[in-house]
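Request:
Um, any thoughts?
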Amino acid sequence: MNVRVRPWYSSSSLRNKLLLWLVLVHVLAAIGVAWFTYTSYDRLIVTFKDDQMQTLADSYASNENVPVLKPGDKHGIYSRGAFIVQIWSAKGELLATSWPSLDVGLQPEQGLHTVQLGPEDHEMWRVYSTGPVTDGGRFSVQVIQNGGFVRALVERRALQSAAPIALLLPLSLVVLWLVVWTSSRKLRSVALDVAAKDERSLSELSVSHVPDEIAPLVEAFNSLLGRLRQAFAAQRRFVQDAAHELRTPIAALGLQLDNMRAEVPGERAAEHYTQLKGGVTRAQHLIEQLLRMSH
């Protein structure tokens, strides 16, 4: 009896189903962690940067004279999120700026604002303004930071948080494959033991090295083997008993035929004797075959 082995890519493979579900769970977990981290870092970093801009603007606004601003560079503004500072007069004139090429005007109200200068993320700017002033001797301050830098920083932090799960996925798949492969080897061993069984070898299968989930199936099969042994034993006893019961009368019948042949002369009687003797001989041969089969 040959044991049919399914290909490794079979859709009914327990190993493939476990691997598929594990991949789905890890992917969903990575997406969930990335989304949660993204939203958390988005609130945290944006709030932190807004507070920094407000503190910096208030520190410049507390000066009595227009401060001297250090010029910024494009790399620092777009790649490192450097702040841009603007000083505005009470008349709305730009007195000083750390990056003159930025075309962001004075905001009409105090507080935080988002200014979009174009469709791209790097053209979005986060602005904190101290608001216009009415005193001609005072000035207002605006601190500006590139919104694309903040967005990229949040996305990078979220991906870094989800990276351990992504790195854990191959390791988990290897471990699961080894566990399932080891268990499937034990199942294949049980299948080979079952395939080796016939009417002459009906001993029970060992459950000592079988997984707990498969042990009830093996025990049920052992119970079936026990019932088969009992059925075969009952059949053997019946055949043996029947052969023994028939052996003696058939032998006596043969002796009586021999005696009758000696006492009854005639050709007609000889013909009937030959027929009866042939039947008795065949019956005796059949009984001997039954006895050998029962043994």
